């Protein structure tokens, strides 16, 4: 669909409840019209506006990878009116999707080199898209390291897939939780501290960071300290968006709009547009 104002109609194919408190649900959607499916080309890091007729819309990063052609995946944290309505959706319900919107992680630049993915909490959505994409093109990339943190073990999303990723010998996966809990035998500590401790090598390596703003804020300086060049550190700032197409003015950072200039920015770019980084 070329007109970004008009949503394409999609059907809820599957719903997965990600956490015991049921605040995180993952929705797999299928295209109702085959022409829409043909036209909808996206890359890891892009987002869509997810709408329910008469109930409003909200932006979410695409959690599926373009290599997964049968569905589009979104994981939704229940935080307000629209996300509450989305949580009421049942299998078979119809929804609208506007997109794909924004830019994407520069996977072409990553080719032949190492990639470190650093994620926090339920913001692992577009990082899942990126990771699946890299694993589907495994030969094109060097070492892949994932550092993924959550407040507690219940709050990791995609737990079944994490279990599968842990078995792979072509992926270094490090999971961490904020504070010790019974039965947890992996890492404990906040993501920036764990990144510092693991100290992934910066040489010929690209790093992608996505998570809560506070995690991003404290992780970026650690990566700089580890000698990652600013133009090899990428982050996604999808948090402030509303309309997704440069109209509402809600998402500006300095002179840029997150929705149309991002949501993916290198630290080099962020340093030029805002003193916040
Ligand atoms: S989300 Fe409206 S201008 Fe960016």
Rough outline: globular
Number of helices in the DSSP assignment = 9
- Name given to the CATH architecture of the largest domain: 3-Layer(aba) Sandwich
Mean pLDDT: 94
The major sheet is characterized as: 7 strands, mixed
CATH topology descriptor of the largest domain: Rossmann fold
Low-confidence stretches are: none
Strand content: 25-35%
**What structural class do the secondary elements suggest?**
alpha/beta
SSE series = EEHEEEHEHEHEHEEHEHEEEHEH
Cα-based radius of gyration, to the nearest Å: 18 Å
Strand elements, count: 15
CATH superfamily of the largest domain: Nucleotide-binding domain of ferredoxin-NADP reductase (FNR) module
In spatial order, strands of the major sheet run: 10-9-8-7-11-12-15
Look at the structure and give the CATH class of the largest domain.
Answer: Alpha Beta
Total number of domains: 2
Termini separation comes to 35 Å
Ligand identities: FE2/S2 (inorganic) cluster
Please bin the fraction of helical residues: 25-40%
């Amino acid at each position: 669909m070329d007109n970004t104002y008009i949503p394409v109609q999609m059907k809820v194919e599957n719903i997965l409840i990600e956490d015991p408190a049921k605040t995180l649900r993952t929705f797999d959607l299928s295209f109702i019209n085959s022409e829409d499916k043909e036209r909808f080309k996206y890359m890891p890091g892009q987002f869509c506006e997810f709408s329910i007729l008469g109930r409003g819309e909200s932006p979410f990063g695409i959690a599926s990878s373009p290599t997964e052609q049968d569905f589009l995946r979104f994981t939704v944290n229940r935080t307000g009116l629209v996300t509450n309505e989305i949580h009421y959706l049942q299998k078979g319900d119809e929804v609208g999707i506007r997109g794909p919107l924004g830019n994407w992680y520069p996977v072409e630049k990553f080719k032949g080199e190492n990639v470190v993915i650093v994620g926090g909490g339920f913001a692992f959505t577009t990082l899942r898209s990126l990771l699946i994409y890299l694993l589907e093109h495994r030969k094109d990339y060097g070492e892949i390291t994932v550092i993924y943190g959550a407040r507690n073990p219940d709050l990791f999303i995609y737990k079944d897939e994490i279990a599968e990723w842990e078995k792979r010998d072509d992926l270094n996966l490090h999971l961490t939780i904020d504070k010790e809990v019974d039965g947890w035998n992996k890492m404990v500590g906040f993501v920036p501290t764990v990144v510092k401790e693991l100290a992934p090598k910066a040489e010929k390596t690209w790093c992608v960071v996505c998570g809560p703003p506070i995690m991003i804020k404290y992780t970026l300086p650690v990566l700089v300290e580890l000698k990652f060049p600013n133009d090899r550190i990428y982050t996604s700032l999808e948090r402030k968006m509303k309309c997704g197409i440069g109209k509402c003015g809600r998402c500006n950072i300095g002179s840029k709009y997150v929705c149309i200039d991002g949501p993916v920015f290198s630290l080099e770019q962020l340093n030029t547009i805002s003193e916040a980084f």
